[in-house]
Write a structure and sequence with these properties.
This protein is α/β, with parallel strands linked by helices. It has a single domain (4-262), classed as NAD(P)-binding Rossmann-like Domain (Rossmann fold, 3-Layer(aba) Sandwich), CATH 3.40.50. The chain contains 10 helices and 9 strands. The protein has helices at residues 13-24, 53-67, 90-118, 130-133, 139-159, 178-181, 193-208, 213-225, 238-249, 252-262, and strands at 4-7, 28-33, 44-47, 72-75, 81-82, 121-126, 164-171, 183-184, 232-235. The strands form 2 sheets. Strands 3-2-1-4-6-7-9 form a 7-stranded parallel β-sheet, sandwiched between helices. A two-stranded parallel sheet has the order 5-8. α1 (13-24) packs across α8, α2 (53-67) packs parallel to α3 and α3 packs parallel to α5. The longest helix is centred in the middle third of the chain and has 29 residues, at 90-118. The mean pLDDT is 97. Bound molecules: NADP nicotinamide-adenine-dinucleotide phosphate.
Length: 265
């Protein structure tokens, strides 16, 4: 069945690919942007800034006014702060949470009343494998993703009665603009400088060799077609998905040792 889908952040990366794939499948796709950009033919763009609650409200009611319903919300847009926690100022944490957490909460809160009234809907939150394993020097970013995990779990329980499904997708490393736009905080005299440089090189190498975002977009298209989607989907390399499994079954001490070694610490 063809659906009305809202995707946040379609100027690049996952958002851009999801919009392209879903419009090709015949869905009506609205994608949020903040400035003029190239999008696939047929995708409808709409302005939304996640740090601006009014723009979120305006965009969502505009789509509902035109379409009369919103079937799928894909929370995708976000930014990425990196660096040692001790070196990351409070405003860096606040900005990360404002965009990647409060912006998503706001979007969800504006869409849910419409989905509730139509007694159907699907909310897909793009989390991260890092939100299940933890990653060194990605504490600012993963804190927001961990928050999304907690939010999604509660939301899923609350919305079940209204026939609204909540799905969490945890990607591993994919080649997107994420690598170029990461905002880094590291003090000039940082005690973590050497370790951070080493870990960041490993992280960036993995991201650079990351999978094609089209893989994730195709997965999302299949999830949308399911009548009863699972709660969680891991999308990434074998080793990234295995890390989640190891974290679940290994004693925490051993897992911490392995992940520290992996990131050159
Ligand atoms: N790439 C990976 O390996 C990976 C792995 C796990 C999870 N993820 C998650 O996947 C999602 C998409 O990331 P991506 O890798 O595709 O990165 P990306 O290519 O940098 O795309 C990010 C998108 O978010 C938008 N955005 C950023 N800040 C915004 C704001 N304040 N308000 C509205 N839109 C904003 C950007 O729009 P502008 O062009 O206007 O900046 C862009 O469209 C994110 O939630 C990310 O955390 C990515």
């Amino acid at each position: 069945m063809k659906k009305v889908i809202l995707i946040t952040g379609i100027s690049s990366g996952f958002g851009k690919e999801m919009a392209r794939v879903l419009v090709e499948k015949g869905h009506t796709v609205y994608g949020t942007i903040r400035s003029k950009c190239d999008v696939a033919e047929g995708v409808k763009t709409i302005y939304m800034e996640l740090a601006d609650g009014e723009s979120i409200k305006k965009a969502i009611s505009h789509i509902h006014d035109i379409e009369g319903h919103i079937d799928v919300l894909i929370n995708n847009a976000g930014m990425h702060s990196g660096g040692p926690i001790e070196d990351s100022p409070e405003d860096v944490f606040r900005k990360q949470m404002d965009i990647n957490f409060h912006g998503w909460v706001n979007t969800i809160k504006n869409v849910v009343p419409f989905m509730r009234k139509q007694n159907s809907g699907l909310i897909i939150n793009i989390s991260s494998i890092g939100a299940l394993t933890g990653l060194p020097f990605q504490g600012v970013y993963t804190s927001a993703k961990f928050a999304i995990e907690g939010l999604s779990y509660a939301l899923r329980l609350e919305l079940k009665q209204f026939n609204i499904h909540v799905v969490v997708v945890n990607p591993g490393d994919f080649k997107t603009r994420n690598v170029e736009t990461r905002e880094i905080s590291v003090a000039d005299n940082s005690v973590y400088k050497k370790q951070f440089k080493k870990s960041l090189a490993i992280i960036e190498k993995e991201e650079g060799n990351g999978k094609d975002p089209e893989i994730l977009a195709n997965k999302i298209a299949r999830i949308i077609e399911k009548k009863n989607p699972k709660y969680r989907y891991l999308v990434g390399s074998f080793i990234q998905k295995s890390a989640v499994c190891f974290k679940r079954i290994m004693p925490e001490r051993i897992f911490t040792h392995l992940i520290s070694k992996y990131y050159g610490m």
